[in-house]
Design goal:
heterodimer, A: 635 residues, alpha/beta, Glutaredoxin, Rossmann fold, Ubiquitin-like (UB roll), 5 domains, 5-stranded mixed beta sheet, 25 helices, 18 strands, 40% helix, 14% strand, B: 153 residues, alpha+beta, 2 domains, elongated
Chain lengths: 635, 153
C-alpha cells in the first residue's frame, strides 16, 4: 500500500474521531447525566415509564440535564436500571426503579445531596461510597469483551461508539493487507459463535480464495433459540460493534455487499441497526471508498420472518433470495457457493463483534483468554430459575457451576438445582453431576448438550424433565421445514410419544422406541435442526430416566408440573380461617367455601390448574398443595 | 386494497430477493396479506402465484386473516414456558373465547403466540400491542383486559 493512501485513511479517521470525542466531552460537562437502560428487557420491566417520569421531574424543576437511553448492562434481574453520574460522585446504578423512585432520585440526588443508597445496585467505578460492580463476587469470574460497551453508551449515537475507540480497528485493518487480517484472525483462534464453532479465519480464507464475484458477507442475527437473547442485547446496545466487525470481515474476504439478517421479532434491534447503518453511511464509514481507501462495502438490513430453521446458513441464504427457508445439502459450503451461487461468508453477531478487539489488541491477547481448543470468552443468556438472570460473559473454560452459582447466585427461593438446559432446541439438559464441566465447544458436545448460541435456562425441582423434552420437540416439530422425512415425520412421532407420557398414557416399551427414533432422526436428517432435534430427548432420557418411569408406571409427575397428572387441593386443617384470597383470585371460580365449615374447597371439575390459588395462599398457611397422581385427592 | 399494494410496490426493485421485504411492507400497511395483494406481488415480480403463497405460509410472521384492533402475542420461549406461559395462553383463550391464531368476533383482539421475544428474564411474557409485558400470569391477564375496558369507557 502506498504511503499516501495510508496517510489518507489515518487523516480521514482522525477527523471523524476528533469530532466524536468533542461531542462526548461535551456530554460530560459539569452537570449530572442520567442514563436509563431501555433495551427490550428494560422496556418490558417499565423503563419507558421511568424515562418519562425522569424527564417530567427534570422539566418541573426547569432543568435541562441530558437523559440518555442506553442498552442492556446485563443485570436484567434488576431492570429497570437507572444510572446517575453526578460530578463529585461516582456513577451510581440504581436497580428496580419505578416512576416514583425515579422522581425521588431526581429530587434527592440530582437536586439535593442524598444519593439514596437504599436503591443502589452498584457503582460503575471503584470508590469509597458504594460497592462497585467490580467488587461483586461475580466480577471475579466475568470478563467483558464484546459486552463492554453495552449499557454504557447511547446505541443511537455513533459518536459515543467512536469516542470509546470505535471504528479505529477498521482504520487499522484497512492499512493491512486482507491476507494479513485473515492471518490475525486465524492466529487468534476465533471460532464461530453461532454454535458449531468453525474457525472464522479458516472460513474467510476459503471464501477469499473462492472463484466468483461479487462476494457476500451475511451477519446471522436470526437468534431463533427460544431462551437466548445475547444477539438481541448486542444489536440493541452496541450495533456499531457488529457493523465494524462486518467491515473488517468484508475487507478480509473481498466482499462488496453485506446483509444483516435480524429477526422481525426484535423490532428495537431492527430499528437501532437501521439507524446505525444510516449514521455510518453519513460518516463515509460505509459505502464507496471507505475512509478514502479503495475498499467499498455496503450493508442492507433484512428482517427474518420468524422461522427457526433460517438460523441454518443455507436456509438463511434461501430466505435472502426470497424463497422458503429450506436448507440445502453441504458441500458446497456457502463460502464457495452461497447467495445467488456466489462465495458467501455467514458469521454470527457475536463472532463479528469480537473482530474489533482482535484487530485492536492483537491476536495474542484474544488467544490468551480461554482454553486450548476454544479461545476467547463465551456469552450466556442466563434465564429460568436462577437468581441473577441476565447476560454473563466469562472466559471459555469457566465451569457451569461458576456461571450458575457464582455469576448467577444460585437458584431462586432456595430451591434445589435440577438441570441446566444449554443450547436451546439443539442442546440438552445437563444434571448436577456435570456442573464442574469446563465450558467449551467440545466438552458440552461430549456431555450431550451443545454450545449452541448460548442460551442457558436453569431448571429447579419444580421443572419436569419429560415436559421440557416435549416442549422442545413440539418446537422443532413445528419449525421443521419438512424437507427430510426423518425430521418431518420422526419428530412428529417422537412428539406423540412424549405427549402420551405427559398425560400419563405412556407404555414402558415406548421408551425404547423413543430412543431408537431419536437416534434415527439424528442420523437421517440433512441440516442441523433435524440432526440436533433429538438432543433434548436423548439427554433427558440419559440423565433423568427415573422421571420418565414415574410418568409411565405411576402416572405421577415428580416435579408436579404436568397438568394432566396433578391436582390442586386445599388441606382443610390448614385452611380453616377467615381468608378468601384463593376464592377471589381463582380465574374460573372453582373455589368456594364449605357450606358449614370455614375452609375452602376446589371443584376439581372446574379447576384449570393454573396455580393462581397456590400463589395467593398466604405463605404462613400453605394450605394449597399439588398432588400427583390426581387420585390422591380425598373424595 | 390493490391501490395500497401498488403504492408499496413502487418502493421496490423487481427482484425475487425482495419478495419477503415486500410482503413485510404490505402486511405492515394492511395488517395482513389478502389474496389480491399476493396476486399483485406475483405479477409484479413475475413469479408463479404459488411461490408467493409458499413463502407466505412458510414463515410465521405472515397472516392471511385481518388482525384485531389489539394484538395479543403470548411468548412461548423456553423460559416463559417453564414459568407457565402455556397457562397464560389458556387464560387469554378463556377470557377472549378464541383459539390461538384467531380474532374475536368484534375484531377487538387477536391472539397468537411468538417463539421468543428475548425478554426471558421477565417470563412469562405477553406482547400486548407490540409492547412486551413482563410476568403476565392469569390474574394479570384480567388486569390488562380491564385496562382496555376502562380506556374505551
Amino acid at each position: 500500500m502506498k504511503l499516501t493512501e495510508r496517510q489518507g485513511i489515518v487523516a480521514a479517521f482522525q477527523g471523524i474521531k476528533e469530532q466524536a470525542q468533542s461531542q462526548w466531552r461535551g456530554l460530560w460537562r459539569d452537570r449530572p447525566v442520567i442514563m436509563v437502560g431501555a433495551a427490550t428487557c428494560g422496556r418490558a420491566a417499565g423503563a419507558l415509564e421511568v424515562l418519562g417520569a425522569i424527564k417530567d421531574e427534570l422539566k418541573k424543576h426547569g432543568l435541562n440535564y441530558p437523559v440518555i437511553e442506553v442498552g442492556c448492562i446485563g443485570h436484567c434481574y434488576a431492570e429497570p436500571i437507572v444510572t446517575i453520574s453526578k460530578p463529585g460522585y461516582p456513577p451510581i446504578c440504581y436497580g428496580q426503579v419505578n416512576p416514583v423512585i425515579a422522581q425521588r432520585l431526581i429530587r434527592e440526588f440530582v437536586l439535593g445531596d442524598n444519593p439514596c443508597l437504599e436503591f443502589v445496585l452498584g457503582a460503575l467505578e471503584k470508590n469509597d461510597l458504594v460497592p462497585s460492580f467490580a467488587d461483586f463476587p461475580r466480577a471475579r469470574f466475568e470478563q467483558k469483551v464484546i459486552l463492554k460497551n453495552c449499557g454504557y453508551i447511547d446505541p443511537e449515537k455513533i459518536e459515543h461508539y467512536i469516542a470509546g475507540g470505535g471504528y479505529s480497528s477498521l482504520a487499522k485493518a484497512l492499512q493491512l493487507k486482507p491476507e494479513e487480517v485473515i492471518a490475525q484472525v486465524k492466529k487468534s483462534g476465533l471460532r464461530g459463535r453461532g454454535g458449531a464453532g468453525f474457525s472464522t479465519g479458516g472460513k474467510w480464507e476459503i471464501c477469499r480464495n473462492a472463484k466468483g464475484k461479487p462476494k457476500y458477507l451475511v451477519c446471522n442475527g436470526d437468534e431463533g433459540d427460544p431462551g437466548a437473547f445475547m444477539d438481541r442485547a448486542i444489536l440493541e446496545s452496541d450495533p456499531h460493534s457488529v457493523i465494524e466487525g462486518m467491515l473488517i470481515a468484508a475487507y478480509a474476504i473481498g466482499a462488496r455487499y453485506g446483509y444483516i439478517y435480524v429477526r422481525a421479532e426484535y423490532p428495537l434491534a431492527v430499528q437501532r441497526t437501521h439507524l446505525a447503518l444510516r449514521q455510518a453511511r453519513k460518516l463515509k464509514l460505509l459505502g464507496k471508498n471507505i475512509l478514502t481507501s479503495d475498499f467499498s462495502f455496503d450493508i442492507k438490513l433484512f428482517q427474518g420472518s420468524g422461522a427457526f430453521v433460517c438460523g441454518e446458513e443455507t436456509a438463511l441464504i434461501a430466505s435472502l433470495e426470497g424463497k422458503a427457508g429450506a436448507p440445502n445439502y453441504r458441500p458446497p459450503y456457502p463460502a464457495t457457493s452461497g447467495l445467488y451461487g456466489k462465495p458467501t461468508v455467514v458469521n454470527n453477531v457475536k463472532t463479528l463483534a469480537y473482530l474489533r478487539h482482535i484487530i485492536q489488541d492483537g491476536a495474542n491477547k484474544f488467544a490468551s483468554i480461554g482454553t486450548e481448543e476454544s479461545k476467547g470468552t463465551a456469552v450466556f443468556a442466563l434465564a429460568g430459575k436462577v437468581v441473577n438472570t441476565g447476560l454473563a460473559e466469562v472466559p471459555m473454560g469457566t465451569t457451569l457451576r461458576q456461571v450458575i452459582f457464582d455469576v448467577g447466585s444460585g437458584i431462586k427461593e432456595g430451591k434445589r438445582f435440577k438441570a441446566v438446559q444449554i443450547g436451546g432446541p439443539s442442546g440438552g439438559c445437563l444434571p448436577e453431576s456435570t456442573l464442574d464441566l469446563p465450558i467449551d465447544f467440545n466438552s458440552l458436545t461430549a456431555a450431550g448438550a451443545m454450545m449452541g448460541s448460548g442460551g442457558m435456562i436453569v431448571l429447579d425441582e419444580d421443572d419436569c424433565m419429560v415436559e421440557i423434552a416435549r416442549y422442545f420437540l413440539e418446537f422443532t416439530q413445528r419449525e421443521s421445514c419438512g424437507k427430510c422425512t426423518f425430521c418431518r415425520l420422526g419428530t412428529k412421532q417422537m412428539l406423540e410419544v412424549l405427549d402420551e407420557f405427559t398425560k400419563g398414557k405412556g407404555k414402558i416399551e415406548d421408551l425404547d422406541m423413543l430412543h431408537q427414533l431419536a437416534e434415527d432422526v439424528k442420523a437421517g436428517s440433512l441440516c442441523g435442526l433435524g440432526r440436533t432435534a433429538p438432543n433434548p430427548v436423548l439427554s433427558t432420557l440419559r440423565f433423568f430416566h427415573d422421571e420418565y418411569e414415574a410418568h409411565i408406571k405411576e402416572g405421577r409427575c415428580p416435579a408436579l408440573m404436568c397438568r394432566d397428572l396433578i391436582a390442586y387441593y386445599i388441606i382443610p386443617e390448614k385452611c380453616e380461617r377467615t381468608c378468601d384470597a384463593c376464592v377471589g383470585t381463582c380465574t374460573v371460580e372453582a373455589i368456594s367455601s364449605h357450606p358449614t365449615k370455614r375452609y375452602k374447597i376446589i371443584d376439581q371439575t372446574k379447576c384449570v390448574k393454573c396455580g393462581t390459588c397456590l400463589k395467593s395462599c398466604p405463605p404462613q398457611y400453605q394450605a394449597v398443595v399439588r398432588l400427583s397422581p390426581p387420585s390422591l385427592v380425598p373424595k | 386494497m390493490t391501490k395500497e399494494t401498488r403504492q408499496v410496490l413502487q418502493r421496490f426493485a423487481k427482484k425475487r430477493g425482495n419478495l419477503i421485504p415486500i410482503l413485510q411492507a404490505i402486511q405492515e400497511n394492511l395488517g395482513y396479506l389478502p389474496r389480491e395483494a399476493m396476486l399483485e406481488v406475483a405479477r409484479f415480480l413475475d413469479i408463479p402465484e404459488i411461490d408467493v403463497y409458499e413463502v407466505v405460509t412458510f414463515y410465521n410472521q405472515f397472516r392471511l386473516n385481518p388482525p384485531g384492533k389489539h394484538s395479543i402475542r403470548v411468548c412461548l420461549g423456553t423460559a416463559c414456558h417453564m414459568k407457565g406461559g402455556y397457562i397464560t395462553l389458556d387464560a387469554w383463550k378463556r377470557r377472549l373465547n378464541i383459539e390461538r391464531g384467531q380474532t374475536t368476533p368484534d375484531r377487538e383482539f387477536d391472539l397468537d403466540t411468538v417463539a421468543c421475544v428475548g425478554c426471558c428474564v421477565m417470563a412469562p411474557v405477553t406482547v400486548v400491542d407490540n409492547k412486551p409485558q413482563g410476568k403476565v400470569e392469569p390474574t394479570r391477564v384480567d388486569g390488562i383486559l380491564l385496562s382496555f375496558k376502562s380506556k374505551t369507557l
